[in-house]
Amino acid sequence: MQTNELIEELASDLQPTPSRARLLAMAIIAGAAAALVLVWVLFGFRADLSVAMLTAPFWMKWAFALVTAAIAFVLCARLARPEGKPGWWPVALTVPLFVLAIFACVELLNAPPGERQMLWMGDSAFQCFWCIPALAAPFLLGALWAFRQFAPTYLRLAGFSAGVLSGAAAAAVYALHCDEVAPAFVATWYSAGMLLPGVLGLILGPRLLRW
Fold this sequence. Notes:
Distance between the termini: 33 Å
Largest sheet: none
Shape: globular
């Protein structure tokens, strides 16, 4: 068999590889479906959701979660290939929080001293803190599964970015139930809920994504 014939025979058995973005998107969509069911069954959607979706505070909260998720998605897609470099995208993850923190500081400074703790803690700080990571579980499982189809080399950062993506996507779903809208509350408790899956991904990355 000549060299050209051997190459052609080997090439004929190759299967197209799904794109990184497509696999990650499929994983996030599947996680979103699971998280929506969990929110509906365990908590229910807020009764005034149709009205709330016409207000700026709701979209402020959703924009914070969705923009963070979008940045984490791009970072995940970059890290999913062996030669992928994170670039400035890890720093970009902090931009939505930084912007929201400015609004939170302005809100707290302008509020009467007696109302500041209520703006910060709301009525559901503890619930928010554990619900978002719990809802992030199906997202994280899907994102880590997608990463295993590729060959990342920055394993800890890949796991962390998958965790932040999962937490941010879960926060967007949880916002359909949560009626807290104060920037101080969202900047603190939503961020904490989004960070916990990131820390979990940071720990699991070297164990689950090694190839």
